[in-house]
Structures are given as C-alpha cells and as structure tokens.
Input
Amino acid sequence: MGAVISSSEEEEEEEEISSEEEIEEKKSDNIEESDSYTSYSESSSSSDDDGSFFGDSTGDESSESETESELDEVVEGTLFGMGNPLLDLSASVAEGYLKKYDLKANDAILAEEKHKPMYQELVDLFPVDYIAGGATLNAIKVAQWMIGVPRATTFVGCIGQDKFGEILKEKAEEIGVRTAYYIQNKEPTGTCAALLCNYNRSLCANLAAANLYDKDHLDRKETWSLVEQAKYYYIAGFFMTVSQDSIIAVGKHAAENGKTFMMNLSAPFLCEFFKDNQVASLPYVDILFGNETEAATFARVHDLGTDDLMKVASKLAGWTKINSTRPRIVVITQGHESTIVANGPHDVKKFPIIPVKQEDIIDTNGAGDAFVGGYLSQLVQGKSIEECIQGAHFAGNMVVQQHGCTFPEKCIFES
Output
C-alpha cells in the first residue's frame, strides 16, 4: 500500500497498539548533543512555493566538497527489502466516511475490530483500484523500476495461499522484483484501505497474513542466502510490529559486514507505542527516513528538547550507532517544503523541491514510499547524497500524479 503523504514510507501493520509498556530510555546516553556544533544550510537558494508538493530536485546545485565516488555495478539481489506485503484497496471518499470509521487524513493505522466491515463495504460502495503494495514493497518496486536491472531487488514477506497473494507476487515480479514469500494458510493475504479525501489519504491496514511472518523463514538457507547476497537493506518501520527479531538479524549482518542498513520511522503511532523496538533497531541504521510528523513525534516521545526539525535530524543522526565507520544519514521530508538531510550530526542541509501544481496531484498514496525507492535506486549505484535526493524527488513527484504507487512503463529519470 502507500505511505505517508509527506514521505516516509510507510504503510501498515497490525499488532495491538498498547501504550502500556513504554520503555524508560536514557536519552542523554543515546543522543549526541550537537546543536552548538551543527552547520545548518540550504543546498540551494530556491525557496519553497506554498502551492507545491512533492517535486524533483534536479535543479539542486549545492557546491559540495564531497568527492564523487565511482558508480557501483548493480547486479541481481543488490537491494534486499523485508516488510508487510499488502493489497491496497484504493478509493476516493468523502470526509464523512473517514469520520464513520474514526479515521484521520494523512494518517496510517492498523485495523481494529471496528474497521473490519470497511473492506467489503469499500468494494460494495465505491470504485476500487487494487494495487500491490505495502510500505517496503512500494519502495522496492520503485527502486527496481528506476534501476532497470532485472531482479536487482529482492522482497521478503508473508502472504496467504490465495488469489490476492498470487496477485501480489505477479505484480512485483512483472516489474522485475525477485520475491521470496513465506506462504501460509492460516490467514488470508493482508489488505490496506487507502482512502483518498481532498488530496489527502488515510491508510488503514489489516495485516492478516503479513502479521504472521516467521523468522524461521528468514533463517532458511535459501532465504538467508538472499540476505548474504545483498549489499543494501531496507525495512519500513511497520515491520517492527511483526518480526523484530528478523529486523535485528538483518541489521547485525549489515553492521558486521560493512553493508548499508536502512529503516523508516513510518508512522507516528510506531514512535509512540513501539518505541522500545525502534530504539533497539536504531543503532544498526545507516540511513533513516521519515516525514515531518513522524520526526516531531519521535522528538516529543524521546524528549529531545526541540521541535526544530533541523535539530531533530541532527540528534537522530547522532544517536548511538554500532557501525561507527560512517555517519548516519537522516532524511526528513516535509511535503511541499524542502527535504532535510543530516549527514552525521554536524552537517544538516535542506534540499528544495520542485513544485507540483495542486491540480496535477491525483493521489498522494505511496508518495513517501516512492521517495524512498527513488533514493535507494541511486544509492545502490554509488551516487552522491545530492543525486540520491534528486532520484527521490523525481519518484515522489511522479507518483503523486498517478493513481496509487504506480508508474509508467519506462523510467525517464537522469541524474
């Protein structure tokens, strides 16, 4: 399914959302206080336009001192994704329909019992588009599309032994993604209601089968060999509610072998109610994505002492990191405003977007996932941060002008 309007990724999970066990973190031990040393700058003199949304930052001309690395060869299995595969039921609804099911615009939640009737009701009452997705799979699909090398990406998750599962598998493989699903018959393939209302979207995910992913599947020789083959890993935060052990296993492998491990804050509720899992995963993360709402929620939950997103990015970049041979990169999107990028805690920049006219926006569902996919597509080729952001802005721009997280047959992006 799609992702948060501004960016993260993101999407759906189903674990009970209980705020009961909140971990008492020692934030001061985990956060590098870098405010007085951090250099904040704008990567371009362009200013944001109030009428803008996601855009392509190809006009970004920052005079960076970074040396350009040689491009990496992308081969089969270079990028590994693991997450919750879902079939999106995308429909346009009125505000009253959101209120009926106690849903909010620009939000992503897990389905409760009161939401269960909604899925069949959507099919009965509205024209529905069926789109293969889930936060991680959306990002992997976009990355595969932009990379263009067959089976350069791999996706792992759990589906049911049913027609929807077959559709998810077929749709991903049509684009060139290699899939390695854990298929079981206890639960049907997961679905996500993607409700579009006044250019905004509300996501309500019924994980079903996606919630049953078993680490035993990851440990199987044939699956773990795919982990070993990869050099880059991306897991949306929603998977923390499903298989935290699997996340840690992949994160450890990446850290021990000098590979790149990436995650997404994905949704405010994860920052609040799964913060223990989030804190356990974060030390392994080399690149962290999120949108402005998620970053602000993280800052509040962890008492970072600021709501300035430039400083929040700096503090997240300075959080304890196991592989200390390179700085953590933090990418925070802000909808129609500039994207914030921290390359370590002391180097924080803004990258202006190129506006999309309001009338050209068709569907924001999946825009955040597409942004991540665009970034990943350039990262695995050894491109610079600036070029990765260009790819990200291009993908986000393109997806908001489509229905769901979909794209044309041919990718025309050039960095």
Observations:
- The two ends are 27 Å apart (CA to CA).
- Residues 1-39, 44-69 have pLDDT under 50 and may be disordered.
